[in-house]
Amino acid sequence: MEESRDTIDNIKNAETAINQDPPAAEPERQQYFMERAKGQLAELSRRLGRPLTCCINTFGCQMNARDSEKLLGILETIGYQAVESEKADFVLYNTCTVRENANLRVYGRLGQLGAYKKTHPDMMIALCGCMMQEEEVVEKIRKSYRYVDLIFGTHNIFKLAELVSLCLERRTQGGQKQGKTKMVVDVWKDTDQIVEDLPVERKFPFKSGVNIMFGCNNFCSYCIVPYVRGRERSRKPQDIIREIEKLVADGVDQPLVLDHQLGKGFFCHTGHISPPPPLSSDMYITAGQSKFLQAFEKNLPDFRSVRNPAPLKRDRRWRSAVDAGGREPV
To answer: Confidence class of residue 16 from pLDDT cuts 50, 70 and 90?
Structure first.
């Protein structure tokens, strides 16, 4: 296979990065590791004589789906090509742990991947998401699925390029026996970090999720979110508005605003009506949402509606969006 100029440049950039210390601050640190991983994968692609492919399978909620778009954006930036088949060079399961059946599905499919990897030792298998936040799950994978290359959780998905680079470096240093790898595990119990300005690859051209916050402080008796997604962390309103502006400019007319609390989530739909019509009388928003919506209307006047489909009762103590008198809802 004739080497392209991009392949040669990527390898040279990686060699340069190896001789430099990575930045401490984000997102500069991840940009450094994206360049480094890009060169490492270019070298692997040259050795195999073909492009490298990746496949992400997502289990669970819309938050996981949005995380997968971010993960795919990073993988494509460092040199992978997305495919639907799990017979790929890099397979990532973004897992869910709301129901036991979701865990069992992951274990079953991991067994199939292990059988395939025995004849494809250059393959990499990675696991992330809510299921990986459970210590007993990670311990089970360590013992029973030793061919897995990488495990990380919900709090550090922005580190994917760094973790992939580490996996590739360990393979180079220690060699690799067929079907056996040195597993990298990096699961954080919590974080206060929100890293912006990393690549994203949307699944649909006309709609996209937009995170406004992460985690939850409610600790409802039936819900696992605070334990696997951590305490509440909110993005800066200007970062949210800037992201939506970019999406609208790129043709997205359905930005879905995401968080982990139904009472604080809402859906915005772009259009060409200004000013926007009022919300219906049976919808309520929190005081924080009210300030955000005011900023949103000021910066993006061409959106059509905002909906809060299922507010939690504890969040209904704030005034109705259309009742200026501040009537307390029941």
So the answer is: low
